[in-house]
Structures are given as structure tokens and as C-alpha cells.
Automatic annotation (TrEMBL):
Pathway info: Mycotoxin biosynthesis
Pfam families the UniProt entry points to: p450
Gene Ontology molecular function terms on file: heme binding; iron ion binding; monooxygenase activity; oxidoreductase activity, acting on paired donors, with incorporation or reduction of molecular oxygen
Similarity field: Belongs to the cytochrome P450 family.
Keyword hit for Iron: yes
Official protein name in the record: Cytochrome P450 monooxygenase
Plastid is among the record's keywords: no
Binding of heme, residues: C385
Keywords: Heme, Iron, Membrane, Metal-binding, Monooxygenase, Oxidoreductase, Transmembrane, Transmembrane helix
Domain of life assignment: Eukaryota
Cellular component aspect of the GO annotation: membrane
Length: 443
């Protein structure tokens, strides 16, 4: 309920202060070193037990820079590559038959997102290696599961001490992935100074380019962990978000044809390109509205106060070590800036972003990858997700592929959405709900 006052909840076995939205401006202007998202997530999920100081204030910036300075400027070059990987994933997971096939939607879309993200955030050498795909998906899942086990067990004051032995299996999965990745990284390091070899479009190359000392760094394990944790960040959310979009399309079935027509015209004009993606105004709005009403979690913009107390503009002071966040789901469902904010309107934002298709999604005032005080899927402030531009483009490519090249339906007779799994304030799309897919016979 909206009280305008902070209150405390128990979340991930820690006390968190839930802040009213009036404090967002202060968070936006704060130093990321003073109010740390990475410190918060590391402690909440006990990541320090498997990756050491990877998420500390001074160590996490390299992972962010690889996305901001490596991935983001090259996103327009990656469209064709992503389309190829999405095609490959859909073909092996669904097949090319024109007969209806029952598919668990969340499982399908999570793997498609993971395979495409692996191509960009790991490399072409492993993105179609089924052994690596299976092992890396198991590792990413175990990050959340291990944290959940540590949180739910009644460990009391021994929770921190026992978190290390409890994370033993997770660390084993991490090291298996690292060992599969190590030969590739070694080969790339040896190729680094060979000018005759074309540079790859992937995170290994961007890390070596942005941080030349990496090739001479004896701590190769850190490099491998950074690659795998960026893969976690880049592949986990899009699969769930796409699943929620599919639910909304099936519940508002008439919208599928609207989005199909828009996508068909955009593809005819621009081919698989950045211009095509930027002209999908209706789909962009549909994604944003789905993310707004059906977010991945109830609390976001979480921070830990680091080093010294933090004072807000109204005089409120939080001591160092305080954890806090904002009730994103509640704010997004009830915000004065929106008309009937609790009702789903898939094309609510479309008319506001249609003037110039040359403007990228990230520059659109109310685009799916933009951020404001009524829309928090990507966080807020200095720790806003740097990979959101990639995530939205990946979602658009997969959704466009599905609505243009496949017929899609489900056998639910009710109008209610598949019930998600609620875990520690996180919302995981229903894992059991199936959809029926078949390759379109007339393309």
C-alpha cells in the first residue's frame, strides 16, 4: 500500500528497506560506488562464495564496460548473426514440420535466448556445442537455486558460514563451464596480435580489446568467470520476458495479426536489420506494456550503502551496510503518469515513438528498453542494466520469427494467465504451460 514512508521486509534472508518512489531522484544521482547494486546482489545470492570478489565495487566495472563499450556499439552489426542463431535454435527445438507440436513455452524460449546470447557473450565456437549449452544452462540455473536453498534453510547466525559448503555443487558446475571455455580463451589470447585474423564479434574479443593486459594476466579464472556471469545477466531475463509476451499475445489473440502485419511490412522494407527492428513500434509497445504489468520481480533498484552513511535530500540517513529497494511492481501498476495503469493496453506507448524509425529503441522516450519512474524492468539510476538494448533486440527478433514463420495457439479455454511461480519476490513464468506451434505452410 502507498504510505509514502519506508518500511522493512525480510528478503533473501536479510532485512531490506522498501522505499517510496519519492527517493528515486536521490538514487539516480548517487555514485554507484556509494549505493552499490553489485554489492547487494553478491550478498543476497551469495555469489562471493563461487566467484570471490567479482562483484565488489572495485572489481565489477570490467564486466559492465564489456557490455557498454564492447557490445552496445556493435549491436547493429549483430542482427544477422542473431537471426542465424535464432533460426538454428528454433529448427533444432521445434523442427520444420508443418504438423502441430506441443512445446513447453518457458523451456523453449529460455533455451533460444541462451543460445543466441552465448553466440555474442561467449563466441561462435561454443554456441552450437550442445555439451556447453547444457552445462552452461545448468550452471546459470544453479545460481538461483543455490541462493534459494541457502535462504530457505533455517541456518540462523550460521547462514554465512554454511553458505560455502552448500554452494559446493554450484561451484562444481561453474568450474566445468570454465574448463570447457578455457581452451577457447587460450586460443584467442594466442591470436590476439595476429593482424591477419579477422576480429570476432563476441565478448572474448571485446574484453581483449578493451583490456589489453588481460592476455598477460595470470588470473585467467577471473576472465572466465566474467564471461560466464555476463552470460547469466544476458540470457536469464529475456527468456522469461518473451514467455510473458507470448502469454499476452495468446490472451489478446487479435493482436498477433496486427504485429504480424507490422513485422511483415518492416521486413519487406528493411530486411533483417537495425532499421527493421526500430520500425516495430507496435511490438516495442507490446513488450514494454507486458514488462510493466508482468515484471520479473516485485522489488527492483536494489542497493547496499557502501563505505559511509547515505543521506537523502529530505534528511533521511541510511547507515553503511543498509540494503534497500523500490516496489517496482506496485509502482508500475498504479502510477499517476498513466491512464488506467492497472489495465493491459498493448499499444499504449506506440503512438509516442513512431515519428522517426532512425531513432534507436534506447533513445525512444517510452521504448521497451528505456527507463523512467513508471517503468523499472531494467532497474534505475547509475546501475541501470547496460544490456537492456541487446535484450530487447533479441526479444524482438525471436517474437518476429515466431509470429511470421509459425502458427501459434494453446488449448486453454479460460481467459486467465498461466500462474507464475513466486519465489522471494521473483516471478518465474509458468514452467508447465505448453503452446502449440507449427511451421507456417505459406511464407
Amino acid at each position: 500500500k502507498s504510505t509514502g514512508k519506508p518500511f522493512v521486509v525480510r528478503w533473501w534472508a536479510n532485512d531490506y528497506i522498501v522505499m517510496p518512489p519519492k527517493y528515486l531522484n536521490d538514487v539516480r544521482g548517487a555514485s554507484w560506488r556509494h549505493l552499490s547494486f553489485f554489492e547487494n546482489i553478491s550478498n543476497a545470492l551469495h555469489l562471493h562464495r563461487s566467484v570471490g570478489d567479482l562483484y565488489t565495487v572495485d572489481s565489477s566495472q570490467r564486466m559492465v564496460d564489456v557490455v557498454k563499450k564492447g557490445l552496445n556499439p556493435r549491436i547493429p552489426q549483430l542482427t544477422t548473426t542473431l537471426v542465424q542463431e535464432i533460426d538454428y535454435a528454433l529448427n533444432i527445438l521445434i523442427g520444420t514440420s508443418s504438423e502441430w507440436k506441443d512445446i513447453q513455452a518457458m523451456e523453449l524460449l529460455a533455451e533460444v535466448a541462451h543460445r543466441a546470447a552465448t553466440r555474442v557473450l561467449i563466441g561462435e565456437e561454443l554456441c552450437r556445442d550442445d555439451a556447453f549449452i547444457r552445462q552452461s544452462m545448468s550452471f546459470l540455473e544453479s545460481i538461483f537455486v543455490t541462493a534459494l536453498v541457502i535462504t530457505k534453510l533455517p541456518l540462523g547466525p550460521f547462514r554465512s558460514l554454511l553458505s560455502r559448503p552448500i554452494s559446493f555443487i554450484h561451484r562444481g558446475k561453474l568450474h566445468k563451464c570454465m574448463n570447457m571455455l578455457r581452451p577457447l580463451v587460450n586460443a584467442r589470447m594466442e591470436e590476439k596480435d595476429l593482424h591477419a585474423i579477422p576480429k570476432k564479434l563476441d565478448a572474448i574479443q571485446w574484453t581483449l580489446d578493451l583490456f589489453p593486459d588481460t592476455a598477460n594476466n595470470s588470473d585467467q579464472d577471473r576472465f572466465l568467470k566474467e564471461l560466464l556471469h555476463n552470460l547469466w545477466a544476458g540470457s536469464s531475463a529475456p527468456g522469461g520476458m518473451m514467455t510473458e509476451v507470448i502469454w499476452q499475445l495468446l490472451l489478446n489473440f487479435q493482436n498477433i495479426e496486427v504485429l504480424r502485419k507490422e513485422a511483415s511490412e518492416a521486413l519487406h522494407r528493411h530486411g533483417w536489420s537495425e532499421k527493421m527492428l526500430n520500425s516495430l513500434h507496435l511490438q516495442d509497445s507490446f513488450i514494454r506494456e507486458t514488462n510493466r504489468l508482468f515484471p520479473t520481480g516485485s522489488i527492483t533498484c536494489v542497493r547496499t550503502v557502501v563505505g559511509k552513511p547515505f543521506q537523502f535530500s529530505d534528511g533521511l540517513i541510511l547507515p553503511a551496510g543498509t540494503r534497500f529497494g523500490f516496489p517496482a511492481q506496485a509502482i508500475q501498476h498504479d502510477h499517476d503518469a498513466l491512464r488506467n495503469p492497472s489495465e493491459f493496453d498493448g499499444f499504449r506507448f506506440a503512438g509516442k515513438n513512431t515519428k522517426d524509425i532512425s531513432v534507436t529503441d534506447g533513445d525512444k522516450r517510452e521504448g521497451a528498453s528505456s527507463v523512467d519512474k513508471s517503468y523499472f524492468p531494467w532497474g534505475y539510476g547509475n546501475h541501470v542494466c547496460p544490456g537492456r538494448f541487446f535484450a530487447v533486440r533479441l526479444m524482438k527478433l525471436v517474437i518476429t520469427k515466431l509470429i511470421l514463420e509459425y502458427d501459434i495457439k494453446w488449448d486453454r479455454k479460460t481467459k486467465d494467465r498461466p500462474i507464475p511461480v513466486h519465489v522471494e519476490g521473483q516471478f518465474v513464468p509458468n514452467m508447465d504451460q505448453k503452446i502449440h506451434l507449427r511451421k507456417c505452410t505459406a511464407l
